[in-house]
Amino acid sequence: MNQDDFIAELWDYALQVPMREHPWFRGIAEHRWTKEEIIIGEIQHYLRVRENPVYFGYMAAHAAEERVPGLTEAVLANYQEELAGEKSHVDIMFQLLDEGGITREEADKSQPAPATLAAIEMILGHCQRRSALEGIAMLAFVESQHGGTNGAAALAYPELIGHYGFSEYAAQTYEIHAEQDVTHGSRQVDMIRKLSADDETQEKVRRAVALGIEAWNLEWDGHVQAITGKREIWDSGRRINLRKPAVGLAQQA
């Protein structure tokens, strides 16, 4: 498939699960959650984000082994933005919990909701067993939907400060993701376009993108599950279009 057509196909799949429409983000934008419920949901966010060093460690190791031109730089750029500097993203993520009166020990001892647990294990297993390009593909369309002025993080950030009264310190994780994730995502999509030149690579990338979209959708489901106590998975209302063979049952005599 032509590489531009391939990227369009991946976007078509990603937008079957539009992040801005997820009940976690819509609930913040439409003020359906209480301030306390947002803290409870964000504990699930923390439980997933604290695994970032493991995810990115696997991706960086694969990139170093594979030595694909440009790919190592793309992975390391993400690694540095997520984990380097005075504060890592998990430290910044914790600031919201800190303002909510949650200690680091309490957060670490919290139990992941079923969907959060599924998301963590999906992402960990994928990054451990798949190539660096497949790791990038898993993240690219998620981060592109999360970041930017029209992204999910930008939808939530002004409401967290303006309506809910969280400080800029507490809500900084959403500000940073609104700014950085669009850059991460576009950089990764460009790398996918460049390197997905054959059918075999495109199929690997296709599966990686699907895993990433579903894993992060489960993460947001975990936020809602923690608040409601219900094992519910969000239905975006978009039809699931799966490739599958035709069933040819033998005729009974």
Structural write-up:
The chain is an all-alpha fold. The protein has one domain (3-11, 38-228): Heme Oxygenase, Chain A (Up-down Bundle). The chain is 69% helix and 0% strand. It has twelve helices and no strands.
Looking at this protein, list some descriptive labels.
12 helices; mainly alpha; Heme Oxygenase, Chain A; 253 residues; 69% helix
Task: Give me the secondary-structure topology.
Layout (H helix, E strand, L loop, with lengths): L2 H12 L8 H7 L5 H15 L2 H15 L4 H13 L5 H11 L4 H6 L4 H16 L2 H15 L5 H11 L9 H24 L3 H30 L25
Explain briefly what this protein structure is.
The protein is mainly alpha-helical and 253 residues long.
Largest pleated sheet: none
Tally of DSSP helical segments: 12
Count of DSSP strands? 0
**CATH class category label:** Mainly Alpha
CATH architecture: Up-down Bundle
Model regions low in confidence, pLDDT < 50 over at least 5 residues? none
CATH topology: Heme Oxygenase, Chain A
Number of domains: 1
Shape: globular
- CATH superfamily name? Heme oxygenase-like
Beta-strand content bin: under 5%
Whole-number mean pLDDT: 91
How far the N terminus sits from the C terminus, by CA atoms, comes to 44 Å
